[in-house]
């Protein structure tokens, strides 16, 4: 790459970052449904036609913000999880969950973008899937290591759910016992439900010591997916 090409690439990266930063400020102030490319361009002192060279539509900008948010929350879980010794299975699970909560509380508007109400008129493309799966992959990895090591415990599956469980298992973790799949899907939903209740104020006057409550709750989720108690 020539010096001129490198300078252009750096300039494009800097402008792209500035556009996304301003878009995040608009998310915080107005919500995702009111995000406007024209308003972003105006705040940055750009003409709309120039901004369209970076993001051809509002949906393209939303998709970039969504991928960034999924990657950030996924990286937080991965980093926390990687700091725990491999054999401490329940601790690996809980610290990953706690990292999700900490990130969400620090970035409530970005959390709302990916786990709040759908944006009217927007459908997330397939390019968001791998980023969206990062937290789940951390948690599935813990369950996989438990199955290969001490073994999963306490998993049960009603007969009427077996067909659905087999379909889930084939999609998300074919190497694990079929019984683990519904438990993991439920734990994934409950994790983000717990975080969402706190981020969106549903625990007001209900839960006061939220950090200890959350740790207790996600430990129970770890037990529900078959992890041995710490």
Helix content: 55-70%
What top-tier CATH class of the largest domain fits best?
Mainly Alpha
CATH topology of the largest domain: Tetracycline Repressor, domain 2
Radius of gyration: 21 Å
User: How would you classify the helix and strand content by structural class?
Assistant: mainly alpha
CATH architecture classification name of the largest domain: Orthogonal Bundle
Domain HTH tetR-type: 13-73
Protein name: TetR/AcrR family transcriptional regulator
Keywords: DNA-binding, Transcription, Transcription regulation
Pfam families: TetR_C_33 (PF13305), TetR_N (PF00440)
Structure characteristics:
2 domains, MT1864/Rv1816-like_C, Arc Repressor Mutant, subunit A, mainly alpha, single chain, Tetracycline Repressor, domain 2, 11 helices, HTH_TetR, 230 residues, elongated, 0% strand
Short description:
With about 230 residues, the chain is mainly alpha-helical. It is built from eleven helices and no strands.
Overview of this structure, please?
Keywords: DNA-binding, Transcription, Transcription regulation. This is TetR/AcrR family transcriptional regulator. It comes from Streptomyces seoulensis. The protein is built from 11 helices and no strands. It is mostly helical. It folds into 2 domains: 1-56, Arc Repressor Mutant, subunit A (Orthogonal Bundle), CATH 1.10.10; 59-224, Tetracycline Repressor, domain 2, CATH 1.10.357. Helix 5 (89-106) runs antiparallel to helix 8, helix 5 (89-106) crosses helix 11 (210-224) and helix 10 (180-199) runs antiparallel to helix 11. The chain starts with a helix and ends in a 6-residue tail after the last helix.
